[in-house]
Specification:
single chain; 108 residues; mainly beta; Jelly Rolls; 4-stranded antiparallel beta sheet; 9 strands; globular
Amino acid sequence: MPSTFLNAHRALTTTDTTVYTANTPGTRSVVIHGLYFSNTSDLTGTTVTLSVYDATTTTLRRILNKVPIAPNSTLVLEKPINLKPNDELRAKSSNIYCEAFASVLLLT
């Protein structure tokens, strides 16, 4: 089974933002094997909410809910998140001082 690595990143806002959509042609599944949320503010804390949209059942399931990140800090998720074709990884923060970065493994 061939595999390809790539990165996905987004600046987060207070509304759900799609960080990654598993829609690369020929991909059978996707593993998010590293996920980083960075608070870029020197003074302001933020919270982050992470969800997976399941395209098969059209449901949104939360993985993290309003988890705090101190100023100039990073929250790291080192456990894998598995996505099927057309599933989405979505996130939002309590302010504009948060960025998301995902290490993605495509399985074809």
